[in-house]
Q: What sequence folds into this?
């Protein structure tokens, strides 16, 4: 492809720059493209009937790109959860490491028939995707088999770190490949795209393996049952809990469909290589003493239907939280989930459990690099240009400042958000034109735009008023109404009085309208809407959802 050598390369983030989650990044050249990750995020407000948020990908449809590969850096939902949605529109080949693909297969099977061709990635083994040559590089993270990507393009070498930390003592013994990153730096890196999640935090993230002695001590000190909740994809953490429990003479009982499936995948892939009989089923636990049991529960983010939430609400079959049980939440509280997590914790306390979580106890280690590790990544690859990715806006700002302080020229450090683009061409890198980017709301089986969340929030906070009048089809005159029905707007003794005054407002507006001879259905609807908005705003300071109806009889 000689012509491609002079073609510009565009980097287009469609998710993950300005939020935690929703990660999806496009690298394109001459109508060819590769996609890195396809993740989801969860809405900050629970209880609105919204499942997940997906990246909006209308740009990919409008650009008519040939998607040569979808490449996944690791198995977390904020990097693979939107894959079924993406594949339905773009059935491109999918590449991931063995552990990542094991979780992808589970996700695809849950979503129904999705055409997908899955290919295994091996660290240091290159793959060709159109004009791009991609080389996976081993990194350490909270889930095993995670990789960064070295992408050789017609405009130069791009390094995408994925989610990473620099763990000197990883649980599985597979170390962060410092030497490989150093070689990339010697080759010459045109652009570094680097994880920003912990850009606020000084120091080093610490080793995942540091949890094992802490868990061992907690389990040995616990006289009754021990419950442990973390992300089901954190196989390293599950392994450490299971080892500590086994050494203390306890059986491990997975609770929750996701956790049970993750344990199965961990055993099949060799990540949970423990003595036979370490894991038992819930029904077997009924006959064992409390001090012989450790439970693995999904739901560390307070998910309403998770095993942990069911334990807190006393709806988990065959297992109940009792006085003296210990519950450990071993995960970061993702921003937006705090309220639901605290609700679960409060309910566990009410049932007599002792609940441990960071910062009450050192039971969590982050899977993301802190500032010392971010500096080390920059030192290793020595990029000419830099873009912080994977973080909220403040994380991106702080990471960019760190890169500048680490010696990268300020003019070469770009602060991008979803939909912004970077163009690389003939040794020059600059901002390009922005493209459409946003969020799609998953509402049961249907997909919608974020206005759905705003409408449901308004319904929950402000209530709704329905106004109905009947219009004669023959004369065009009002023959019945207005009738008002409200929900969640006013209550108590003043409710009927407010409805009566609101009705009078409508009657007066419609009388004036009739005097001027302008009383068609559309005008009547508009007048009812204006009258009710004005009344409720001025009388009670609320803006309910108002639904005016005109019926012809």
A:
């Amino acid at each position: 492809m000689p012509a491609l050598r002079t073609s510009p390369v565009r980097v287009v983030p469609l998710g993950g720059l300005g939020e935690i989650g929703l990660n999806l990044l496009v690298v394109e050249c001459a109508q060819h493209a590769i996609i890195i990750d396809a993740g989801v995020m969860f809405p900050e407000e629970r209880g609105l009937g919204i499942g997940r948020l997906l990246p909006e990908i209308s740009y990919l449809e409008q650009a008519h790109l040939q998607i040569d590969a979808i490449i996944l850096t690791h198995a977390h939902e904020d990097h693979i959860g939107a894959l079924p949605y993406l594949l339905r529109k773009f059935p491109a080949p999918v590449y991931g490491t063995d552990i990542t693909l094991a979780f992808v297969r589970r996700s695809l099977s849950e979503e129904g028939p999705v055409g997908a061709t899955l290919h295994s990635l091996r660290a240091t083994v290159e793959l060709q995707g159109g004009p791009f040559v991609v080389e996976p590089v081993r990194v350490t993270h909270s889930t095993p088999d995670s990789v960064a990507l070295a992408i050789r393009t017609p405009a130069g070498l791009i390094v995408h770190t994925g989610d990473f930390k620099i763990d000197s003592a990883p649980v599985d013994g597979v170390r962060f490949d410092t030497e490989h990153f150093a070689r990339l730096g010697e080759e010459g890196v045109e652009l570094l795209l680097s994880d920003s999640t912990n850009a606020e935090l000084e120091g080093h993230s610490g080793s995942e393996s540091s949890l094992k002695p802490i868990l061992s001590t907690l389990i040995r000190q616990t006289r009754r049952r021990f419950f442990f909740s973390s992300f089901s994809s954190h196989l390293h953490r599950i392994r450490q809990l299971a080892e500590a429990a086994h050494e203390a003479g306890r059986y491990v009982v997975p609770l929750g469909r996701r956790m049970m499936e993750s344990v199965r995948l961990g055993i099949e892939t060799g990540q949970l290589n423990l003595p036979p009989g370490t894991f038992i089923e819930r029904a077997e636990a009924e006959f064992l003493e409390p001090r012989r049991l450790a439970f693995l529960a999904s739901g560390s983010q307070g998910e309403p239907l998770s095993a942990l939430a069911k334990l807190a609400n006393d709806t988990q079959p065959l297992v109940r939280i009792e006085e003296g049980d210990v519950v450990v939440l071993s995960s970061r509280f993702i921003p937006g989930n705090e309220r639901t997590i605290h609700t679960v914790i409060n309910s566990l306390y009410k049932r007599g459990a002792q609940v441990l979580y960071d910062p009450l106890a050192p039971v969590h280690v982050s899977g993301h690099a802190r500032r010392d590790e971010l500096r080390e990544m920059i030192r290793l690859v020595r990029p000419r240009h830099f873009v912080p990715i994977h973080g909220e806006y403040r994380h991106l700002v702080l990471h960019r400042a760190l890169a500048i302080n680490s010696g990268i020229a300020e003019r070469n450090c770009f602060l991008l958000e979803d939909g912004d683009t970077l163009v690389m061409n003939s040794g020059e890198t600059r901002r390009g034109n922005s493209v459409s980017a946003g969020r799609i709301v998953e509402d049961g089986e249907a997909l919608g735009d974020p206005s759905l969340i705003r409408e449901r929030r308004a319904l929950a906070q402000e209530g709704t008023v329905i106004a109905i009048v009947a219009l004669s089809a023959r004369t065009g005159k009002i023959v019945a109404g207005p009738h008002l029905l409200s929900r969640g707007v006013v209550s108590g003794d003043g409710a009927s009085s407010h409805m009566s005054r609101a009705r009078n407002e409508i009657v007066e507006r419609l009388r004036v309208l009739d005097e001027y001879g302008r009383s068609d259905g559309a005008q009547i609807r508009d007048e009812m809407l204006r009258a009710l908005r004005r009344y409720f705003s001025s009388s009670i300071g609320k803006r309910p959802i108002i639904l005016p109806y005109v019926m012809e009889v």
